[in-house]
């Protein structure tokens, strides 16, 4: 018998690789575009990928009971999956592309070669999905940790971006050392324009998880897609019709099992009756690798029996119950009851319960922030708020005329604000630590916080302060006094304070507008009368 | 050069010198030009004309660094940064005078790209032909400033490497040094923890002024910030003064600048320090000032 691989499917495989590369590059390009563009408002919807993710639609809708209109675009993904199966995973998903590429590379190596024989159950991702959805029902939004887009974007924003920044600036430094001044200049100017944020708390943790996710491909090909991805599981449940059905020509098939051995997602193409259509991502590898061109995916309009992963009813029930129980367990932390002083949310953030229900920890806001002010939280927001954005004034402050973080949130956890609206939003309050402030504690002049206060009239006023020195002299200096009503909590005072380790003026979340509990000063009778008139 | 051309040049040059006696004796030019008018660009041009033209300061082939104040993320009408039209006019004149390259640069306080963009200076200076560059941490080098207080500090090398420095500050109030004008503008040429300089700001400003020594200082007082300095925030914090003050003597320029805020130069500690360091003259009655309106 003539042995020849199918030209058509080899070409389709190449087309798939090209499409994957394009979508990965598009994702990365949008990632790089997520920065201050030289205008107040972003022209491109940099968070567009997220709008096509039906898992985010479902979880945020369940958890917050609010519909974010842009996420309705993900219905397109669902309809397409309903008809054609999980081709989104195989052709379009940027994280899928990364896993497939690293699997491909690992297969070529000696030490990182993934196991071929895989009898492990593919059920975990479905159980993860059920868990996440059940938790969402009780307003506990866990989707961000394993949603593929959130995972990839967060890793890029918090881990890859600082590395890129470091690499570029060091290569610029090298260029100067080699006397290539114009190259060094070009690099530094590009860096200035790209505004890549260079420092993140928890970067090592998030980066390690990212590397681990990639390295898992050395164990099993596309490990993430096979076992972990809740979005893939959701699409698996929706792949009902699979209009392109796998077909093996029994005349040509030589029972070599190559197709099943090389199937990236363990969808078991051979024998065709056992093909798990809900696991197939249409990568076309089986059809392209078949030595006798026996495999094809012809269009078939009649409905066939759908083959999925065996999920026992008992396991599903147990997982749902676990998900429902997780919610109260996560919520018995004090975080929801009393605000953490360091929990300074970006301007436009919803009140804490709604914010937690909607935020998917994707890191868009952290990437777009021009001053590197937003960081993934660790303990500040309680157990359910791990990796939600928190403003860390010691590293970056909130730029007064900037509302970029409010423009990129894919789930509306941060409400979009105009610059005019943004400057009125109070996210915290600055407090002078008189035991560390130079004029108060040392009797030395310093007005740095007052100078930097962007509010007009300034929220930091100067008062004359007498400090008694050990020599018995009185040092009179101007010293800061914070007007809590006009302070918006931007944190530039803390950021620029000359006391480097523990600044002598610090912002805490108290007084933030979004909270009715974390209030500071009740409005006076006069204020209330003024509001009424 | 042909011998004939040489002789011709000699004759033409000699005649020119004979007919214009001012060309050799620099003392003929006023020390301070103060020009008032509606257009920021026109008064800047006129101020340079009063001083004898940009070619008096810039030689053909010079690499020039123009240092405006681009410190804040504020639009021009807030008067927190130098007026972009003043910068544009200066870049144009510098290039007209034969400069090989004009770099416009400042170490900003707010996020650099936002400051460069929203101040309008990046666009204006680029349109005029300058290279507008962000400061680059890699180009910081610890240098001996040999100041009274600042012995050494990190300086951006671009400011040291330029053939000519032109300082283009904007006139603003400041709660510690009372005003921020030309001498204080050099805080934008250095790195490190600049905010620590506020512990002895007058001395720091003079030490920096003694180190950087600009060829020319052009103070933008088209719109001055008289309240809520040094960044303002409301247009009502500013006042139209519609003036540009230019001169070689940085102390005299700052002394004149102080008068916009009803401050007598002798009240300013940094001016006294600067004069005793030999940086210039703050007693304006001893300075040859030419005022014009266009």
Tell me about this structure.
The complex is a heterodimer of chains A (533) and B (294). Chain A has 533 residues and is mainly alpha-helical. Chain A folds into 2 domains: 7-36 and 46-296, no CATH class; 427-533, Alpha-Beta Plaits (2-Layer Sandwich), CATH 3.30.70.20. In chain A, 44% of the residues lie in helices and 7% in strands. In chain A, helix 1 (7-33) packs across helix 6, helix 3 packs parallel to helix 7 (124-137) and helix 7 (124-137) packs across helix 15 (313-331). The longest helix of chain A has 30 residues, at 148-177. The termini of chain A are far apart. The relative contact order of chain A is 0.12. The model of chain A has no long low-confidence stretch (mean pLDDT 93). In chain B, helix 2 packs across helix 3. In chain B, strands 1, 2, 3, 4, 7, 8, 9, 10, 11 and 12 form a 10-stranded mixed β-sheet that branches. Chain B is globular. The longest helix of chain B is centred in the first third of the chain and has 17 residues, at 3-19. The mean pLDDT of chain B is 93. By secondary structure, chain B is an alpha/beta fold.
Spell out the key features of this protein.
heterodimer; A: 533 residues; Alpha-Beta Plaits; two-stranded antiparallel ribbon; two-stranded antiparallel sheet; 7% strand; elongated; B: alpha/beta
Q: Which helices and strands appear, and what pairs or packs with what?
A:
The complex is a heterodimer of chains A (533) and B (294).
Chain A: H1 7-33, H2 48-51, H3 54-64, H4 74-84, H5 87-92, H6 94-108, H7 124-137, H8 148-177, H9 181-194, H10 203-215, H11 223-228, H12 230-238, E1 247-248, H13 258-262, H14 285-289, E2 295-296, H15 313-331, H16 352-358, H17 364-368, E3 374-376, E4 389-391, H18 404-408, H19 419-422, E5 429-432, H20 438-442, H21 448-452, E6 460-468, E7 474-482, H22 492-496, E8 505-508, H23 525-532
Antiparallel strand pairs in A: 1-2, 3-4, 5-8, 6-7
Chain B: H1 3-19, E1 32-36, H2 40-50, E2 63-68, H3 84-96, E3 101-104, H4 112-118, H5 121-127, E4 131-132, E5 140-144, E6 152-156, H6 157-161, E7 164-168, E8 170-174, E9 178-180, H7 201-212, E10 216-225, E11 238-247, H8 250-259, H9 269-276, E12 289-293
Parallel strand pairs in B: 1-12, 2-3, 2-7, 3-4, 7-10, 8-10
Antiparallel strand pairs in B: 1-11, 5-6, 8-9, 10-11
Helix pairs in contact in B: 2-3, 3-5, 7-9
């Amino acid at each position: 018998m003539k042995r020849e691989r199918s030209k058509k499917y080899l070409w389709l495989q190449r087309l798939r690789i090209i499409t994957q590369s394009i979508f990965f590059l598009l994702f990365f390009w949008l990632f790089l575009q997520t920065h201050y563009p030289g205008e107040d408002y972003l022209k491109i919807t940099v968070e567009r990928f997220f709008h096509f993710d039906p898992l985010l639609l479902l979880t945020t809708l369940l958890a917050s009971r609010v519909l974010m209109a842009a996420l309705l675009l993900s219905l397109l993904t669902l309809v397409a999956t309903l008809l054609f199966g999980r081709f989104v995973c195989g052709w379009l998903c940027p994280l899928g592309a990364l896993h497939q590429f690293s699997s491909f590379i690992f297969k070529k190596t000696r030490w990182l070669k993934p196991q071929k024989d895989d009898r492990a159950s593919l059920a975990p991702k479905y159980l993860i999905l059920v868990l996440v959805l059940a938790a969402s029902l009780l307003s506990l939004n866990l989707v961000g940790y394993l949603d593929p887009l959130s995972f990839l974007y967060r890793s890029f924003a918090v881990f890859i971006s600082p590395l890129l920044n470091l690499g570029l600036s060091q290569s610029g430094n090298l260029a100067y050392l080699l006397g290539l001044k114009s190259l060094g200049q070009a690099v530094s100017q590009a860096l200035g324009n790209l505004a890549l944020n260079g420092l993140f708390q928890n970067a090592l943790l998030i980066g390690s998880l990212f590397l681990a996710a990639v390295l898992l491909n050395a164990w099993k090909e596309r490990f993430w897609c096979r076992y972990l991805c809740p979005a893939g599981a959701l699409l698996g449940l929706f792949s009902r019709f699979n209009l392109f059905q796998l077909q093996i020509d029994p005349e040509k098939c030589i029972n070599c099992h190559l197709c099943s051995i090389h199937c990236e997602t363990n969808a078991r193409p051979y024998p065709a009756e056992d093909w798990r259509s809900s696991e197939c991502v249409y990568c076309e590898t089986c059809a392209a690798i078949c030595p006798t061109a026996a495999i094809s995916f012809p269009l078939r309009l009649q409905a066939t029996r759908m083959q999925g992963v065996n999920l026992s009813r008992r396991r599903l029930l147990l997982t749902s119950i676990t998900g429902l129980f997780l919610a109260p367990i996560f919520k018995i932390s004090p975080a929801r009851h009393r605000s953490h002083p360091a929990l300074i949310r970006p301007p436009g953030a919803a009140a804490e319960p709604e914010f937690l229900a909607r935020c998917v920890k994707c890191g868009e806001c952290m990437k777009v922030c021009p001053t590197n002010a937003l960081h993934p939280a660790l303990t500040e927001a309680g157990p359910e708020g791990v990796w939600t954005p928190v403003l860390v004034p010691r590293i970056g402050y909130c730029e007064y005329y900037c509302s970029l973080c409010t423009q990129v949130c894919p789930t509306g956890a941060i409400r979009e604000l105009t610059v005019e609206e943004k400057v009125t939003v109070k996210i915290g309050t600055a407090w002078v630590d008189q035991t560390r402030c130079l004029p108060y504690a040392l009797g030395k002049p310093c007005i740095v916080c007052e100078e930097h206060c962007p509010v007009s009239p300034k929220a930091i006023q100067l008062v004359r302060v007498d400090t008694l020195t050990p020599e018995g002299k009185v040092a009179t200096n101007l010293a800061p006094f914070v007007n809590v009503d006009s302070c918006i909590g931007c944190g530039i005072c803390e950021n620029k304070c000359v006391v480097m380790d523990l600044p002598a003026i610090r912002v805490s979340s108290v007084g933030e507008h979004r909270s009715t509990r974390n209030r500071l000063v009740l409005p006076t009778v006069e204020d209330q009368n003024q509001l009424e008139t | 050069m042909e011998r004939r051309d040489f002789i011709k040049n000699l004759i033409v040059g000699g005649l020119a010198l004979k007919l214009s006696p001012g060309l050799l004796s620099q003392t003929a030019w006023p020390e301070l030009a103060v020009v008032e008018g509606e257009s920021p660009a026109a008064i800047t041009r006129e101020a340079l004309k009063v001083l004898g033209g940009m070619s008096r300061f810039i030689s053909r082939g010079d690499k020039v660094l123009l240092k405006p104040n681009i410190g804040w993320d504020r639009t021009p009408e807030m008067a927190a940064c130098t007026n972009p039209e003043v910068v544009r006019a200066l870049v144009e004149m510098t290039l007209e005078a034969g400069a090989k390259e004009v770099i416009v640069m400042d170490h900003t306080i707010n996020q650099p790209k936002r400051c460069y963009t929203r101040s309008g200076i990046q666009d204006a200076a680029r349109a005029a032909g300058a290279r507008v560059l962000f400061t680059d941490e890699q180009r910081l080098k610890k240098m001996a400033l040999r100041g009274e207080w600042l012995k050494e500090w990190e300086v951006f090398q671009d400011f040291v490497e330029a053939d000519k420095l032109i300082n283009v500050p904007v006139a603003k109030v400041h709660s510690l040094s009372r005003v921020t004008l030309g001498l204080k503008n050099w805080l934008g040429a250095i790195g490190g923890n600049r905010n620590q300089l506020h512990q002895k700001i007058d001395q720091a400003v003079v030490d920096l002024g003694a180190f950087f020594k600009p060829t020319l200082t052009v103070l933008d007082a088209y719109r001055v910030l008289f309240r809520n300095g040094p960044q303002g925030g409301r247009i009502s914090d500013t006042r139209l003064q519609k003036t540009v003050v230019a001169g070689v003597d940085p102390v005299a320029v700052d002394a004149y600048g102080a008068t916009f805020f009803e401050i007598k130069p002798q009240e300013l500690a940094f001016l006294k320090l600067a004069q005793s360091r030999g940086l210039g003259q703050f007693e304006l009655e001893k300075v040859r000032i030419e005022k014009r309106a266009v």
